[in-house]
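ARCHIVE RECORD
Type: protein–small molecule complex
Small molecule: DPM
Source of inputs: curated submission
Record status: active
Notes field left blank by submitter.
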Amino acid sequence: MEAKNIVKVGSRKSQLALIQTNSIINHLKKLNPHLTFEIISMQTTGDKVLDAALSKIGEKNLFTRELEVALEKKEVDFVVHSLKDLPTLLPEGLLIGCVYKRDSPFDAVVMHPSNAGKKLEDLPAGSVIGTSSLRRAAQLSRKFPDFQFENIRGNLNTRFRKLDEDNKYSAIILAEAGLHRMGWQDRISQVLDKDTCMYAVSQGAMAVECRANDPFTLGLLSQIHDPETVIQCVAERAFLKKLEGGCSVPVSAYTEVKDGKLSLTGGVFSIDGTQGRIESVCKDLPKSIEEKEKINISPNGPRQFAGIVGNEKVSIETLEVAQEVGEEIAELMLNSEAKDILANAKAETKAAIIAEKQRKEAEKKKNEAEKIQTNGHANLVTANGH
Ligand code: DPM
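STRUCTURE (tokenized, with ligand):
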């Protein structure tokens, strides 16, 4: 194995991404004081396209593609992500080398300053709630059918500014984990429980992506792989993967590891929230979740479960159970009316993507036409001037 002292780390440029990258680096530095970590930050498509809802852009790896290209080109050795932004199918040759101990997976309500101290149930009918998450809008519509849900895009800083200054939204919904990492926990007025809004697959967990054929980095990351989080996220991602859902459909999860058992509850909803199905599966985990055998690593790298590797702290056998739990819920869904709910949600999202593209093209044409007109006008003025 190649001995090295400098580890290059890719990150998005947003404040949250850099905070997350630094917290992983700080932990690794403590365990490996001889190593130097260098951050290489870049913008991704998701950071650039700010005027459309995520689900309407129509690409799966919006926030990750540019960083993955840097990984493939060996310009960086690993990349820190919010696991919920990582597609369930990763590019060939890349994998998730570790999942860091999960922070709160739940969603939180941030009120407009004029509603400080209130809860969602205190807001009047017709209140506008800002979220671009189909999952949040669908589930909250079920509980609060009189609210209006409207897109709000941009990084967390932008969203806070829009909430506080635009006076359009009564409240916005964001992940509690992200709010804590940014140090904005004081603005949280309410954390949504699982009966109000189940979370997104892998919400609150950070994951580190690296090359499958890079044993040095895999070994390094293995030190901070959190067994319980890994079990939960493998189950949740296996569920999403089998449904072939992404952030384009309202799919949600709730997972518990307790008394040697893993239980997962999954939800599938129509875009407007009027239809939905919830299923749960519970299975015993192996008596010891640790790996007893030495893990056999094939030349293509270690075995993956929805992109995530096992290690000595969380065995292949354990991850097989987690994967089964996720896949069984997906099967229950696909054998029920949830199959149609999902298909319709996908079709609606696809139609919205096409409409969005047409809107953009029309806008572009209009701008070009206006340009020609102004230029023509300018010529005329000069002509007259002569
Ligand atoms: C994904 C969704 C959102 C992000 C969709 C969802 C929220 C989009 C929105 C897949 N990624 O949750 O249903 O609100 O418009 C994202 C956030 C975090 C990671 C921010 C957030 C931070 C927390 C974490 C965006 N990705 O959800 O408020 O590490 O899970």
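CURATOR ANNOTATION: Confidence is low (pLDDT under 50) at residues 378-386.
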